[in-house]
Amino acid sequence: MTAVIENLDPLLRALGTTVLILVISAAGSLVLGVLITVARVSPIPVLRGAAWAYVQVFVNVPLLALLLLAVFALPDAGLLMPLTTTVIVVLTVYEAAYVAEAVRSGINTVASGQVEAARALGLRLSQTLRHVVVPQAVRAVVQPLGNVMIALLMNTALAATVGVVELTSATNKVNLVAAQPIPIFTAAGLTYMALALAIGLAAGRIEKKVAIHR
Amino acid sequence: MTTPMVSLRGVDKHFGELHVLRSIDLEVAPREVVVVIGPSGSGKSTLCRTINRLEPIDAGEIRVDGQLLPAEGAQLAQLRADVGMVFQSFNLFGHLSVLDNVMLAPLKVRKASKATARSEAMALLERVGIADKADRVPAQLSGGQQQRAAIARSLAMHPKLMLFDEPTSALDPEMVNEVLEVMTSLAADGMTMVVVTHEMGFARRVADRVVFMAAGQIVEVAPPAEFFDATRSERARSFLSNVLAH
Questions:
Q1: Which of B22, B95, B117, B131 could form a disulfide with B106 if both were Cys (CB 3.0 to 4.6 A apart)?
Q2: What pTM does this model have?
Q3: In terms of CA atoms, which chain B residue is nearest residue A137?
């Protein structure tokens, strides 16, 4: 335990990096995921096809492969970004595919009659999606979205493999010096658990609050 | 002669193999109340839904207030804004309060100010008798109250024509009257209405003309007194004897 306390400063800084990656990627993937879903249900075939292809690509390629590709290939292609930024971008586009799948299942819960009612009132398709369909679709999938966010949290640990000093990487470094793997990794594990629990609880709270009475 | 509010000419529609509408011709004058009745599967709901192009047609032409129905797009949305529609299953927006349901289209389509939309919505809810439910969500209302909210939602757009697609068919018997009363008062105010219904009493009291449909065709059109008391077609007679027997 002493190793953890002695290295509290770098560990907390690393935790900060983990939370930073988590929060920005979460916000980004939620927004991007909803946009992809909207594209997937749009009447424009090109948009629908592109959104479908997007989801297929990111659901079927391992995150680690994407991270390595982005970190080592993008600079070669002339795109140089700070490491943490690269990781945030990759996590955002990757998790957005899962967000899109969750929200799409939510769209199926919105009765088609409500879409007809909105159209009959003169709302354009974009307005119907924005004011009637998406708000209800998202409300229906708060808990699944919470699970996607928890998966995102766990996936931030992969940033360690490409050199970002986040919680897992920092824990590993402390252990290399102190050689007390049990207390050090247990502490890190408990920290991840606490964060995941917080996300789960928040999702539960939000779900209750925005639930649609039927 | 004034322009008819609705005019259908040679309207044909298929659902796959099924020929749901067979060369329908119908005109509805401004301020007229036309009640469409007929056995289920006769195409009466489909007819109602073609008028605001919720169902596109295969052949023929439909005009609303002289204007040919445009293809799907901004122009059609504009036309639909002027045509109210009330559905069998109410179709209120589940995530919005009753008040917000009524205010949504005026705010987003008409770009009304929040204060105007709100006061108009409250006045309409008052009119249909559910002002005290303004802050409830649809699921907290009875069927009759939901349908009255849906009528208020349509009226908020100041429609020049109202379509009712079996508005009382999903209601408990004791709630049918509260909805019919609202519709009767609308008709008395001079609203142009096309009403698909099984409520023969309403047809008799409120309709200017009754349209009887069977197998995708208009079989008989007559003022209610004539239609109910001196039915011309055999098909309508057998339908009426079935629905009026009990």
A1: B117
A2: 0.88
A3: B95
